[in-house]
Write a structure and sequence with these properties.
Layout (H helix, E strand, L loop, with lengths): L4 H6 L7 H8 L2 H19 L2 H18 L3 E12 L4 E9 L9 E9 L5 E5 L22
Antiparallel strand pairs: 1-2, 2-3, 3-4
């Protein structure tokens, strides 16, 4: 049912009708369904085996370049943390400082996927001697 001409005249000039609001809101479900294949195509390319090999090379190169170890090399496989947008890699090499006398060391590298920035931290304690049990606290019974 159409509104009477008097009601239309009472409306303020800046007021919008429902039909104009729908046009401003967006393409709607039909438009999104038409755009979905365009976005899905990019995801399919990103998960190809060649794309994963290229990403693995990127992570390895960035981590070795960011490492403070001399003759750094990758130890193990890359671990992806998709919820955090990070990839982790363990590196092995020798400490370049003279006082370390060529001691071998480990570093943990984290690469931010979006920025491609690698950060490293010493990780010698990740793989080390077996843990010894802690001393019993006060009030704990002594072993027999």
């Amino acid at each position: 049912m159409a509104s009477p001409p008097a009601a239309a005249a009472e409306r303020s000039p800046g007021a919008r009708s429902r039909s104009s609001w729908r046009r401003i809101r967006g393409p709607g479900l039909a438009g999104l369904l038409l755009l979905a294949p365009a976005f899905a195509g990019g995801a399919a390319l990103a998960s190809s085996p060649e794309a994963w090999r290229a990403y693995d090379r990127q992570v390895r190169n960035a981590c070795v370049a960011a490492s403070g170890l001399a003759a750094a090399r990758v130890k193990g496989q890359r671990v992806d943390l998709p919820d955090l947008g990070l990839s982790a890699l363990l590196l092995e090499g020798t400490y370049p400082q003279p006082h370390m006398r060529g001691q071998r060391g480990l570093e943990l590298c984290l690469l931010e996927r979006r920025s491609g920035r690698a950060s490293v931290a010493e990780a010698d304690q990740l793989i080390g001697p077996a843990m010894t049990p802690a001393a019993p606290g006060p009030g704990a019974a002594a072993p027999r």
